[in-house]
Write a structure and sequence with these properties.
alpha/beta; single chain; 12 helices; seven-stranded antiparallel sheet; binds FE2/S2 (inorganic) cluster; 2Fe-2S; binds flavin-adenine dinucleotide; globular
């Protein structure tokens, strides 16, 4: 999505008058509804000569307000209004029965929304429209919203035909959602929970108490809402391999594991999978129906044990799905043997299980770990008196050259200079920020569970979010791995 900043500025000046926010909202609605740089640019080009006249400006303002009201609820209606506003279509395009019906539905929904106490209406609530474009992100309308209880939601995105290739994914990959909270651009990662190949892009979000995006998603998201979503990224899954696989997942950590399990079982009729899955109680089991359906689809090959931490009645077991009371931990898998291990969920649990497996002699290359809670990544460990470094990040748009303290991680410092760089978790878990060291010296945190492979390390790559400069000049070239296209 690119509309030149000059155009945005012109539009702001021409349209806004006293209502400075109108231009932004109109611009954002149109840009959010049409994910096509050239079309949006053409729309603005055509709209601008007409907005000088008072009558045209008033008409445009009215259309903008309608587009704003329904645009966040129904992408089709919003797109139609935007095209009329941009003089690409005649106004009669809005009177077709299909558009009128959908607009009425969206308008009614928008009215109801206003009456409902809005949990994210407080200052600092999530705004799905980021301030500008970032490479690899696309405006996608939510095409399906399924709520699971009061704290989870399953979302599907409508991927336009021309983006199908870009949204092809490997099992275990995730997308990143970009928006604004309290004036600050934020990014949040969500794993795709289905197996690759069915052409559908689906995520499941679990509410974190007080969480900015998850609260918005669970309470507010509607079909038609447009979100800025990255192309799939990350290297948590592995290329197909037979043998026995085992996974330990807790809470929303089930999402990439489901994708990997389905992929592995589908690809190789001899492969088997053992899943230990921790939840609070039965109603709190995320994607339970999908887990059970998968076990039923691969009888004798996928064995699931649910671990429920809260006391209560245990559901009846089936041949392949068992329920136990108690918390997940290293002891849970003490007697499980597997060729490959996948651990996903809160960092403390995954680390404890990984340590126990390593102590048992499971080699590092058979163990994949992904942490979901990286909001407060470990601070850099460099000496406080380390000299400042001049860092150049290259290979992603224009070179970024900046000076930073030598005791800090590179990426958080770089993102303050340029927010559109590739990153997501900032905690070494998502694998998005792979760079090759081209010049100078750096030190990456010595953590064996970072999302970087031995091959990448051997090739001189680092995760910039967990790397600090160790010489006065450092040049890093962005070089995503094969899985993080
Ligand atoms: C690779 C990857 C894949 C993921 N996949 C999924 C998935 O499939 N499904 C899923 O639900 N999640 C997933 N996550 C987690 C997800 O990215 C978000 O971290 C999660 O949804 C919380 O985001 P949020 O904006 O709602 O919460 P945030 O606003 O980030 O807050 C998270 C928690 O921290 C607390 N908090 C926030 N700021 C502060 C502060 N300053 N001080 C103290 N506490 C604070 C909040 O109260 C909240 O409880 C994944 C994460 C990664 C890295
Ligand atoms: S941003 Fe996630 S690993 Fe660096």
């Amino acid at each position: 999505m690119t509309v030149s900043s000059v155009q945005a500025l012109c539009l702001r000046e021409t349209l806004a008058g006293n209502d400075d926010d109108l231009a932004r909202r109109f611009f954002a609605t149109v840009a959010g509804a049409i994910d096509d740089a050239w079309l949006v640019t053409r729309l603005f080009d055509q709209a601008m000569p007409h907005v000088g006249a008072d009558r045209a400006q008033r008409a445009l303002s009215r259309l903008a307000r309608i587009a704003m009201a329904v645009g966040s609820r129904d992408a089709l209606v919003s797109r139609r209004i935007a095209r009329v506003a941009g003089l690409l279509d005649r106004p009669s395009a809005l009177t077709s029965p299909a558009v009128v019906t959908r607009a009425l539905g969206a308008g009614l929904g928008a009215g109801l929304d206003r009456m409902r106490p809005a949990r994210d209406a407080r200052p600092g609530g999530f705004d799905p429209l980021p301030p500008g474009p970032a490479r690899g992100f696309h405006a996608l309308a939510v095409s399906s919203v399924t709520r699971e209880g009061t704290d989870r939601v399953l979302l599907e995105f409508a991927v336009p035909l021309r983006l199908t290739e870009r949204f092809r994914f490997a099992a275990g990959q995730h997308v990143v959602i970009r928006g604004v909270v309290g004036g600050r651009t934020i990014r949040r990662s969500y794993s795709l929970y289905t197996a690759p190949g069915d052409g559908r892009v689906r995520i499941a979000v679990k509410r974190q108490p007080g969480g900015a995006f998850s609260g918005f998603a669970v309470d507010r998201l509607r079909v038609g809402t447009v979100l800025h979503v990255s192309e799939p990224t990350g290297g948590f899954g592995v290329p197909h391999a037979g043998g026995h696989h085992a996974a330990v997942a807790a809470g929303s950590g089930i999402t990439p594991i489901l994708s990997i399990a389905e992929d592995v079982l589908r690809a190789d009729p001899a492969a088997t999978f053992t899943l230990h899955y921790g939840s609070r109680d039965e109603p709190g089991i995320m994607l339970e129906h999908r887990v059970s359906a998968l076990a039923a689809r691969f009888p004798g090959r996928l064995r699931v044990t649910h671990h429920l931490s809260r006391a209560g009645r245990l559901p009846a077991a089936t041949d392949d799905v068992a329920y136990r009371h108690g918390r997940l931990g290293p002891a849970t898998v003490a007697d499980v043997e597997a060729d490959r291990w996948f651990l996903c969920g809160p960092e403390a649990l995954s680390r404890a299980v990984a340590d126990a497996l390593t102590a048992r002699g499971v080699p590092h290359d058979r163990l994949r770990v992904e942490f979901f809670d990286t909001r407060d990544p470990a601070p850099a460990t460099g000496p406080a008196d380390a000299a400042p470094a001049r860092v150049t990040l290259t290979g992603y748009g224009d070179d970024l050259v900046f000076t930073m303290p030598g005791d800090r991680h590179v990426l958080p410092a770089a993102v303050r200079e340029r927010e559109d760089l590739p990153y997501s978790c900032l905690g070494g878990s998502c694998g998005t920020c792979l760079y090759t060291v081209e010049h100078g010296e750096v030190v990456m945190d010595p953590d064996p569970l970072l999302a970087i492979s031995a091959d990448d390390l051997a090739a001189g790559r680092v995760l910039a979010c967990r790397t600090r400069p160790a010489s006065a000049e450092v040049v890093l070239r962005f070089s995503p791995g094969p899985s993080a296209r």
